[in-house]
Design goal:
This protein is α/β, with parallel strands linked by helices. It folds into two domains: about 1-225, 3-Layer(aba) Sandwich (Rossmann fold), CATH 3.40.50.720; about 240-315, no CATH class. It has helices spanning about 5-10, 15-20, 35-45, 80-85, 105-110, 125-135, 165, 175-180, 185-200, 260-270, 290-300; strands spanning about 25-30, 50-55, 95-100, 115-120, 140-145, 150-155, 210-215, 220-225, 240, 255, 285-290, 310-315. It has an eight-stranded mixed sheet with strand order 3-2-1-4-5-6-7-8, with helices on both faces. Helix 3 (about 35-45) runs parallel beside helix 9 (about 185-200).
Length: about 325
């Protein structure tokens, strides 16, 4: 086993730990900047089975930070390009790909049988969907996010608090790498740390990364961390969950906010009212592109709506 001798010589790994990695089944959601940093280290370390999920194709603007890809990969599926490059690193690792986005409709199927989930999507609708599922089913989750010069990595669920316990509310403004930018090495550093979190969990290294969050500011070379082992989960009445459009029923009251920007929503102080005289005990389904406008509208609706409220992050797909 000469391939792994530089890590098996560590007392935290050894032959027993290497066998644990070889038998591990890991779901990686997102083959962008974080995923491109995470995947080579998991594959190189000898993780046995990796399922990779992403519905995007490689674009030229990805290449400054998504280092698995080359110019020849532009317009090709990220998951297939990643698999091709990773197979050349370690063919002991079995890589299964799904060229699709993770949604509330497929999360249970994709997470089934996994020892761990890595959230590399950097999309809060995906992150909350994964966290909700992993928390309910006691699956270990390592999630990361990067923007500009900053980001974080955290270990959630699997017997520890969920993402909602640490981030009960969404940000005031929706920013992502496309709109706000990100430095390539920042994503690489955070993705590498995310991979180490995952390996530490699989190897049962103590203290466990589960229940810990590390924040990094690489513009000012600062780092901070804290443990949240005893953080309380938000109360049920505070919960806002995401669903897929396939889950909409004829009995739901549906509001699509995609024709109204967040600024317009705030300026107009949009007052949600049912489109009929239906009771406010029915389910309300609020739709927007990213989930942020729907989330903020739902918080207003919760002040008087007695029924269940669910959110859909639909992008520009038809409802």
């Amino acid at each position: 086993m000469s391939r792994y001798k530089r890590q098996t010589c560590l007392p935290e790994v050894g032959e027993t730990g290497q066998q644990a990695l070889a038998s591990a089944r890991v779901l990686v959601v997102g083959a962008g900047g974080l995923g491109c940093a995470v995947l080579p280290y998991l594959v190189g370390a000898g993780v046995g089975e990796i399922t990779l999920v992403d519905g995007d194709v490689v674009s030229l603007s990805n290449l400054h930070r998504q280092i698995l890809y080359r110019e020849a990969d532009v317009d090709l599926s990220k998951v297939e390009c990643a698999k091709r490059h990773l197979n050349g690193l370690n063919n002991d690792c079995v890589i299964t790909t799904h060229f699709t986005a993770l949604t509330p409709s497929n999360v249970a199927t994709l997470c089934d049988g996994m020892d761990m989930v890595l959230d590399c999507a950097d999309n809060f609708a995906v992150s909350y969907t994964l966290s909700d599922h992993c928390h309910l089913h006691h699956v270990k989750l390592v999630s990361a996010s990067a923007l500009g010069f900053e980001g974080y990595v955290g270990g959630f669920c699997g017997g520890k608090p969920s993402l909602r316990a640490v981030f009960p509310e969404l940000p005031q403004r929706a920013k992502n790498c496309s709109s706000a930018g990100v430095m390539g090495p920042v994503v690489g550093v955070l993705g590498s740390l995310q991979a180490q979190f995952a390996l530490n969990v699989l190897l049962d290294v103590e203290p466990s990364p589960l229940g810990q969050l590390v924040s990094m500011d690489l513009r000012h070379s600062r780092q901070s961390h804290f443990r949240f082992d005893d953080a309380p989960e938000p109360p049920p009445e505070h919960y806002l969950g995401f669903i897929s459009k396939e889950h909409i029923t004829d009995q739901d009251w549906v509001v699509d906010f995609r024709s109204t920007s967040l600024d317009e929503f705030e300026q107009q102080q949009f007052q949600l009212q049912p489109q009929s005289q239906s009771s406010t005990t029915q389910r309300a389904v609020l739709v927007c592109r990213t989930g942020l406008t729907a989330w903020r509208a739902a918080r207003k609706l919760q002040t008087y709506w007695q029924g269940e409220i669910r959110l859909i992050a639909l992008g520009d797909d038809p409802l």
